[in-house]
Amino acid sequence: MNFDKELNARGLSCPLPIVKTKKSLVDMTSGQVLKVISTDTGSVKDMAAFAEQTGNPLLSTVEENGEFIFYMQKK
Amino acid sequence: MAKKMAIIATKGTLDMAYPPFILASTAAALGYDVQVFFTFYGLQLLRKDLSNVMISPLANPAMPMPIPMPVMVQMLPGMESMATMMMKQKLKKHGVASLEELRDLCLEADVKFIACQMTVDLFEFDKSEFIDNVEYGGAATFMGFAGDTDICLFV
Predict the structure, then answer these.
(1) Model ipTM?
(2) Chain A partners of B95 at a C-beta cutoff of 8 Å?
(3) What is the pLDDT of residue A41?
(4) Which of A1, A12, A19, B78 is the most buried (most CB within 10 A)?
């Protein structure tokens, strides 16, 4: 999937993946896609909850080699 | 209009310092307007230097220890520093942010910190020991915001 910006959140625990995702989205424009890589298992539910509450669509969540990769579109 | 969350932070130990900062930074990331009211021992969390925020194994039977430790041992000098060091190492190993980092993230996200004026006076704290981004007020100041929140927590 194409993306405009990547956030490496490997090794970080709650709430850092969410807080850093929010910070990354701030300087992006509407429609752009942010790729987030996390190793925190809790981030799967949390990213979905973040997307639902903030209205930024979570386009996809995949697990690859113990890492979670999220594609989030800025609303 | 943005949702609102208010937290009253009353504890000054390492374990109890985390919930207010974690919840405040997360809520701010979700778009909440957040205020944290620090009172009694919670005021310790506003000091510029957080190295005195510690955890004690004493009277803390729920704290996981590498080996069983009788209370008589827990009360020995240096045990508090040792437990604090071990806890900080554990937090770091698991990628949990430091208190300073979480507090900075809160401030960056415009979380408002209010220090309870009465307890600042009671404990004779010097305001110069606290970080700059703090407002001072009393219970009524807090109610002005808390009365209109979606989430209100006492920690």
Answers:
(1) 0.88
(2) 11-13, 16, 39-40
(3) 93
(4) A19
